[in-house]
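Q: May I have one protein plus its fold?
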Amino acid sequence: MKLCRFGANRLGLVEGSDVRDVTAAIEALPCCYRYPLPRDDIFIVNLPTITSHVKEIAASSPLLPLDGVKLLSPVANAGKIIAAPVNYQKHLDEVKVDPGLHQGNQAHTAPIQSIGLFLKASSSVVGPGEGIALRKLDRRNDHEVELAVVIGKEASKVPAVNALDYVAGYMIGLDITIRGAEDRSFRKSPDSYTVLGPWLVSADEIPDPQTLDLKISVNGELRQCSNTRYMILGVPELIEFASSFYTLHPGDVLITGTPEGVSPIVPGDTIVAEIEKIGAMTVAVRAA
């Protein structure tokens, strides 16, 4: 099942080039909370119930053209955005030889097993319809296309062999990066620097996340093209790694690293990112 969030927080069921407005299914969510609010994204926590309601009402729900709606991030309240640096060998190789990428920081050229993961601010999340608003235009801003994994249930110290049981679904992720000497989390966390979408594909539709082609083009020029099989640490190993340090909650998002070919973007560019079995999303770039 492919579920999107669009317009004024509407819920959509994606069917080819159309979307059914199944917002009524959200009525299945718990209606009342008291402070403090839960750490989890309540939509993801209740996803099995939501999908059951979507199936019941889909046939009678309004049908809209997909290209006529503004797509938001499928996950509205991600608690953590967990990111995997240099998780493709060819990307690691290009970082080592390009000062524009490593900025003289040796930590940027070390293998993922030794430097670990990093966190991005949840406030950096937008959907493809909201676009990227670049900051620090005097510095290089780069695109990075990544497979994004949505955690579906609480996970702590999860072994890789069981890790996919904790996945709710998958999305395309764009990890936008300001180049510089500062910590990764700082340079990758401005507003709109994490684009998630175009929709959430349920985990049952992607039983093996390590066989997916992914690519990105800018203004029609192909920039990155690879396959998730080339990850240094696959999705199960990344979940094991992350959950060994902290508890993962429903709605947390793991972006799994980018392949070789990262390059600059500027205001006025149009990005098209694609991942096999998920789809494609078009994202406009502007100045903040």
Remarks:
- The domain at 81-287 is CATH 3.90.850.10 (Fumarylacetoacetate hydrolase; domain 2).
- The CA atoms of residues 41 and 96 lie 38 Å apart.
- DSSP finds seven helices and 19 strands in the chain.
